[in-house]
Amino acid sequence: MLTPLEIEALSLSLRVAAVASLACLLPAVGVAWLLARTRMPGKTVLNVLVHAPLVLPPVVIGYLLLLLFGVKGPIGHWLYEIFGWRLVFTSGGAILAAAVMAFPLMVRAIRLSLDAVDQGLVFAARSLGASRADAFLTVTIPLMLPGILAGLMMAFAASLGEFGATITFASNVEGQTRTLPLAIYTATQVPGGEAAALRLVLIAVGLALLALVLSEVAERWARRTVYGT
Amino acid sequence: MIEVRFGKQLPNLLLDIDFSAPSQGLTALFGRSGSGKTSIVQAIAGGLKPDSGRIAIGDRVFFDKAGGIDLDIHRRNIGYVFQDSRLFPHLTVRNNLLFGYKRAPGEHRFDLGTVVNLLDISSLLDRRPHHLSGGERQRVAIGRALLAQPTLLLMDEPLSSLDPPRKSELLSYIEGVRDELQVPILYISHAFNEVVRLADQLVIVDAGRVVLCGPLMDVASDTTVAPLIGRFDAGSIIECTVATHDNDVELSTLGFSGGQLRVPRVDLAIGTRVRVRIRSRDVAISLSRPMDVSITNRLPGTLLSLTPRDGPYVDAHIDVGGATVRALITRESSGRLGLEPGLKVWALIKTVAFDSRSVGFIRRARSTTSPLE
């Protein structure tokens, strides 16, 4: 039914999106907590940095990533020297680009759920003998679960559609960085590739709808589990 | 001893609190909304940091500005029952109850079985808080606080979100906790009938200050308190003993030093000591013993004093066999009857004026409930 090339693009997309959104999770919870609950100096700077990918053109983000993580970039050079990792032209690069672009979406979803946690419940937990960390892990985090799931789903969906930063930073390498959007773009660049492009578009639409339904189901399940409603 | 002495500038109120209470029985913190009651309890629990002063329960110092002590909330070992129960929605009733139990240090005095029995919540254990009624939620919240093995139980208007029948029901459970378990309770309320029914000690708070503090009977009969309770809620408190029950007419007779009171049937054993509150506005005065009125309680006494109040009112104190009954009447009536101290009068009180919340038993003998587990 699907051609090997289509399967390759689809599975690469799923892998990149899954890894990127899971990799965002812990840092996103941390950053959401820093932004919502602390009064540390430099909070505004952090806020701006985290949200920059939302407002900057993706190409700009891709270019900045190239400057930082390219083989000659300050971080990329270091990663290459020590671990032998090269992000440009590899799926690692596609994952990094997708993660950076999806990160602010996830932070926003998680921060909303953190703000919605009743501080009265946290105080109740503290009065019952729970330390700050204990109350965070046993009350705050479980109550945030629906929001965390929503954030994961949103990041996953955004990663599936990531194009600009990926093609600029990680380039368009078959089997490595050519996710569905890049494959569609590539097909439209080839004379007579309209039919192939249309097939890929249908796959992308199907995938998006499936993700939407799944995220709805997952969120409802989480809400029921956590709040018993 | 529970010693609370601290100062704190709040945005709209300057708190200057100083009181102490014995570390047994129930101490009520009574005052109007906004008088600073909740802030006091918050300061004891550690949710509000005072600017100055010292807070100590027994030999445990929670806060001492001079000594630089400010114990962390979770090390204070108090049980806090909130107005809005604050049960954890993601946990079952059982796990809510065990939340503090698992974290309590040292030897556990109260176990799950005892507390579940006392509060009648065994059938709720596997439910989620979402599926509980308001009264059930508060019972679970009280149980959760008790199982944290507190050295002090703080209750912040635990009845305020309940309808009257549920209020009355929960009051009985709180009486149960007060009498069965040896844990001092600090109970916040702005409803005087709850206070009368529950308290041993009374602390009256007004505008961020403690106005009066002491045993309930002493404080409640202090005339300076009347304006705080409200003219129409002020009254007298009389200690009685349940004498008889008349099931056919659904009435009970309570005996006290000055005679007998007929009240709507109370579900208490004969011989139980009870505390009855009679609101001043429910008492009328007659110069002779009226025979052709419906009023059942006609008590002979001597007029002690007449104190003019704001508006057309006079507050009359009547000595009835050693107990003081207060009556709120109009200045006009007082003049018409020619009332003056020393006069022999009859105090008339309608039986209907007593409701279940104005009759509270004082203390049951400590029964020995053996824990189920």
Report on the architecture of this protein.
The complex is a heterodimer of chains A (229) and B (373). Chain A has helices at residues 4-37, 43-55, 58-69, 74-83, 91-116, 119-127, 132-161, 164-169, 180-189, 194-227. With 229 residues, chain A is mainly alpha-helical. Chain A is globular, with a radius of gyration of 20 Å. Chain A starts with a helix and ends with a helix. By secondary structure, chain B is of the alpha+beta class. Chain B folds into 2 domains: 2-229, Rossmann fold; 235-361, RNA polymerase II/Efflux pump adaptor protein, barrel-sandwich hybrid domain (OB fold (Dihydrolipoamide Acetyltransferase, E2P), Beta Barrel), CATH 2.40.50. Chain B has helices spanning 37-45, 93-103, 112-119, 134-147, 164-180, 192-198, 216-220, 226-229, 331-337; strands spanning 2-10, 13-21, 26-30, 52-57, 60-64, 69-70, 78-81, 152-156, 185-189, 201-206, 209-215, 235-246, 251-256, 259-264, 273-279, 283-286, 297-308, 313-320, 323-330, 344-349, 359-361. Chain B has a 6-stranded mixed β-sheet with strand order 7-8-9-3-10-11, sandwiched between helices. Chain B has a 5-stranded antiparallel β-sheet with strand order 2-1-4-5-6, with helices on one face. The A-B interface holds A 118, 120-121, 123-131, 134-135, 138-139, 142-143, 145, 225-229 and B 45-47, 72-80, 82, 84, 86, 88-90, 99-100, 103-105, 128-131, 144-145, 148.
From the N-terminal CA to the C-terminal CA of chain A, the straight-line distance is 42 Å
Q: DSSP strand (E) fraction of chain A?
A: under 5%
Kindly identify the CATH topology of the largest domain in chain B: Rossmann fold
Number of strands of chain B: 21
Extract low-pLDDT stretches of chain A.
none
Q: Number of domains in the coordinates of chain B?
A: 2
The outline of chain A comes out as globular
Number of β-strand runs of chain A: 0
Proportion of strand residues of chain B: 35-45%
Approximate shape of chain B: globular
The percent of residues in helical segments of chain B reads 10-25%
From the coordinates shown, what is the CATH architecture of chain A?
Orthogonal Bundle
Written as H for each helix and E for each strand, in order along the chain, the element string of chain A is HHHHHHHHHH
Low-confidence stretches of chain B: 364-373
Classification by helices and strands of chain B: alpha+beta
Oligomer: heterodimer
* Radius of gyration of chain A, whole Å: 20 Å
CATH level-4 homologous superfamily of chain A: MetI-like
